[in-house]
Fold MinD/ParA family protein.
Amino acid sequence: MRDQADKLRQLRLVKGQGNGDADETPRPSVRTIAVTGGKGGVGKSVLVTNLAIACARRGLRVLLVDGDLSLANLDLLMGLIPKKNLADVVLGQASIEETVLSTPSGVRFLPAASGMEEMADLDDFRRERLLRELSRLESSCDLILVDTAPGIGAQTTHLAAAAETALIVTTPEPTAFSDAYATLKVLRRKGCRDLALVVNRAGSNGEGTRTARRIQAVARRFLEYLPDYLGTVPEDPTVPASAMRQEPLLSIFPHSPAAQAIESLAEILLEGPSPAGPRLVDREGLFEKVANLDR
Ligand SMILES: Nc1ncnc2c1ncn2[C@@H]1O[C@H](COP(=O)(O)OP(=O)(O)OP(=O)(O)O)[C@@H](O)[C@H]1O
Ligand SMILES: [Mg+2]
């Protein structure tokens, strides 16, 4: 697993050098992935939490960010009680180091708070302070995974668009399917190149594949874009059982079908290369992009 992490780091460094732009500022080689999906309750938070753990087990330095700024709840899924959150950083009451939590799985976790919509209205001073604090973390990560709120509101889609890759989670239900397509459409409009589908709560792999193929067919026809299909996670009673016990699925039911499927997703995610072709390393880091969105 260490080998895989080393390979990933090398790959990222090579890609970072390939931009050919003379005044490009070298950036730390950090990959950013947002987990989004349109419809509420499709399993974004469960997936992002456990993907973070799976990637950390493969030797990556993972930062998990709760980007559901209005109803932050990743702390519950992680079984943590944060003393500080991003609101404290914004108010200058905590540094980012005091806010980030180390977890037993090796994932570092950045909790959010309810009522953080005001982030968009930060004055320049506070925005700069938050940006400076957040950017300090990027250099010590290989992978930043961001959970997002449901819906296709500006805050969620901005966050997803600022990441290099957006994983769009759906279930086989028609409503989820249709919201996943709406998300795909908005993110394509925002210029996102690397979008991938995950089907959660499927009755079988076949059902998951059929769901993904239908979304791919609609996207190809109407958006002239073919999102990648990463895989399916089955409907599995160990998922709500782990949430009830406030422990991550991969920690307490590592051999359950859903946990095994998430492990496979992590393998595929880290294997790359991206179907959208080589990713470009942005001059702006993830947090810098988010902070600049409303300017
Ligand atoms: N594969 C699965 N099998 C069974 N239950 C699942 C599965 N995935 C998620 N769930 C359940 O679905 C519910 C919603 O999951 P989760 O909170 O991760 O969704 P979400 O997309 O983050 O929701 P929100 O949009 O409200 O943030 C939880 O009760 C969770 O236990
Ligand atoms: Mg959620």
Notes: The CA atoms of residues 194 and 276 lie 6 Å apart. The mean pLDDT is 83.
